[in-house]
Amino acid sequence: MTGINDLWALVIATLIFLAIPGPGTIKIFASMAEKNGGPRAGFWSTLGLMAGDAVWMVLALSGVAALAAAYPRAFDMLRYAGAAYLAWIGYTLIRDSKQTMGEGVVSTEQGRGAWQWFREAALVSLANPKVIGFYVAFFPLFIDSATFDGVATYARMMVLVLSIVFLYCMWLIVAAQIAKRVFARFPSAGMWLKRAAGAELISFSVKFALQK
After folding, report:
1. pTM of the predicted model, to two decimals?
2. Domain annotation covers residue 1
3. Residue 69: inside a domain
4. Percent of the chain surpassing pLDDT 70
């Protein structure tokens, strides 16, 4: 592909990155566990995560990473806000852990739907400012200087990475639906899974807050 060096290496590297469990994966599962969640919640959460990632990609490629390095205090404030949001989501998972899969997080709220799932997932992605550093280091590795054509090459790389993210998340949704049937038969397993997911999100929040 024009401007991209070793296309398959880019695909494999992206899949390896996605296979490492993170806040986005947990958020998809948490949304699907809601009372009216399921695959629809997973789909809109996926779009939200992709939107957040796209923002970080654009910021990374536009040089905002260098600006953040010049003003570390502003970047720290963004990191702390993101960490607090992740901690809140983790708390709500633990708080509602006794509800069975399919009756989950904040299910008492009215009118939850596509916009809420999209917005919350996008915020989870944006809550991790370290992603911008990943993309700053990641994209240059796969640029072919001989055929590089500026913004067009970056656009192709973004489309490719986001397409892989979408397909991977669709696979996660299918796997989650299969697992949900098992948890419906064993409610205690679902309860402990929610607690573990909540604790993991809180640990992510601490990690993001303390990282330099």
Report:
1. 0.70
2. no
3. yes
4. 68
